[in-house]
Description:
Elements: E1 15-17, E2 20-27, E3 38-42, E4 62-70, E5 77-82, E6 85-86, E7 88-93, E8 96-102, E9 108-111, E10 121-129, E11 156-157, E12 161-166, E13 173-179, E14 184-190, E15 194-197, E16 200-203, E17 206-209, E18 224-230, E19 233-239, E20 244-247, E21 250-253, E22 256-257, E23 260-265, H1 279-291, E24 296-299, H2 306-315, E25 318-322, H3 332-335, H4 359-376, E26 382-386, H5 397-407, E27 412-413, E28 427-432, E29 447-454, E30 456-457, E31 473-474, H6 478-499, E32 503-507, H7 531-539
Parallel strand pairs: 23-24, 23-32, 24-25, 25-26, 26-27, 28-29, 29-32, 30-31
Antiparallel strand pairs: 1-12, 2-3, 2-4, 4-10, 5-9, 5-12, 6-11, 7-8, 7-10, 13-14, 14-17, 15-16, 15-18, 18-19, 20-21, 21-22
Amino acid sequence: MFDEYPRPQMERSQWWDLCGAWEYAITGTDAVPAVWDGEIQVPFSPEAPASGVGRTVGPGDRLWYRRRVDFSGVPGRVLLHFGAVDQTAQVWVNGVEMGAHAGGYTPFSFDVTAALDRDRTGELLVLVRDGTDTNPMARGKQKTARGGIWYTPQSGIWQPVWAEAVPETYIRALRITPDYDAGAVTIDADPAGTVHFQGADYDCPAHIPVPDFEPWSPEDPKLYEFTVTLGQDKLKSYFAMRKFSVENGRLCLNGRPYFHNGVLDQGYDPQGLYTYPGDEAMLRDIRLAKSLGFNTLRKHIKIEPLRWYYHCDRLGMLVWQDMPSGGGRYDPLVIQAPAIGLGGRMRDNRYARFARDDAAGREQFIRELDEMIHTLYNCPCIAMWVPFNEGWGQFDAAKVRAHVQALDPTRTVDHASGWHDQGGGETQSLHVYFRPYRYKPDREGRAVLLSEFGGYNLRVEGHTFNDRDFGYSRCRDAGQLLDKLEKLYRTQIAPAREKGLAAAIYTQLTDVEDELNGFVTYDRKVVKLLPQQVKKIIAGT
């Protein structure tokens, strides 16, 4: 199920998949359990059907994991990797604490060599705490009381756990930056190694010419492979030659205006919830989006495993990456009223109003945001960073935008998706659901993004999460859904694009729990419209 190397841009030959059956226990104390509750299938959260547990971990609970590991006969050092654990994790090997990590969406690793027994075996123990929406940490759309646009909470290990063997001196990180205008790529390694590309060797940091290169695009997703060595350590990786920019109020790809015709993608699976049960499930959704005619996925309020981005890289799909939201309890006047035209733009330094009056919570958000950008920096598909959505825990968005662009000047930033625009930057972002959209150029000359719209609802009996029905405009059957979609794109999106609209992101790719406004049902068994019908409509814009 998880038999592919989890980190495609730093691939080594000797590694172990540690997913599968672990022991688990849910307790109320920090004491190691004397009795374990049973088995859980990692990397599925205990709330997910695929975990085999079917239990919810509350804010006051402790979630424990335990399993044996065996690296006998393995030379060198052993690195233990966690793709993501929600929200905080402490890790021990043979009773020796390896360390801790705070933040439920980004990977972390430990060198466990010294803690292993002489025969290179050990007991792995993990303690997880998850406050969901009772603390200010990033939580996305998880909510202790799910319903509507808020979903079943996830806890614990929800991305692959794995280990790999490395020599005493090994490469810890790569940073890959294509320079499209110069026809070159800069590759750096920590510590510095040697890059092997197209028969030549380059010392890091290496500025490598790529003559007569093929530009990467959704229509032609050309990837270039290379290797990096440092002594006995060897990594396989790849890059793409592409450039993202904003010019004259338009989003550009490789120096030319390129309309981001996209769909919102929340990445919830009916069996794994937060976790896709393997590559085929990831590919199913990405390929569906392409078959419908979309060239962009807005990965909404969630960060996927690295293999998901790899598939977008190689199949050709632009990605707008959201930072999962956090903060305190949201004020409806801040996050909901603007959707129906009530309330104007608010200044987001009013921390209490935006549920961000906790200074430590704001600092934690920036740490998690930085980890996300560092983790995904090398992925060619990512075109846009989205730090805040609809005012959910938003704060100092103009400063955060500048911070993000300093970390990564190669991409654009949608600093306040939906409303509460703080001015500046290169983009203006709008969500329009309950009224017709009419394009207006931005006063500051920024690219105008229609970053959410549509949301047409069609219930398919026998293929729903429950008997609830959430959407922005209900349809009685597929015919009415098709007619509404065609009219929407013909009368609103196409004219707006002609006048200067830079991007349009339709809501959404799949049904998600109560939400029935996807192109495919939550169980992925019924695509509501023929892909060629939708593709024809999308192509008209």
